[in-house]
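User: Hi! I'm working on a homework problem where we have to compare a predicted structure to a textbook description. Could you give me the structure for the chain below?
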Amino acid sequence: MTIDPTRSRGRPGSWQRIWPSPTCGSSTGAFSVDKDAAAAQIAGFATVDDVVGFYERAMPLRLAGLREASGEDMARLVDFFGMMKRPGATLLGLANNHGIHHRGQLAAYLRASGSTVPAIYGDSADEPM
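Assistant: Happy to help. Predicted structure tokens:
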């Protein structure tokens, strides 16, 4: 499958609106986005395999960073894109819930489009665990 990062379902920019920017981070004590770096990253994705490869490389590094975080690190206030400041642990929970929400959306879209739904959080009608 080929991805056109500038068009999705005929609408310009949809890909950019849904893409979780790989340049977001909290290593500086604040979440921010380098829009030029994010655009360059997105431009490098031509296929679904490119996106999967990115996550296979990036997620282990991010998870390792989380595992190394101390209680003090997780209690420290983090600026979230200038909208609010919350402890890192709170923002980690927010990110977890956000990911769960989008997994549910994907399962609903798969089902509505006639595809099978994988066992994401336990058995699905299509795939027992």
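For your comparison, note the following. The chain is about 50% helix and 10% strand. The first helix runs from residue 14 to 18. Good luck with the assignment!
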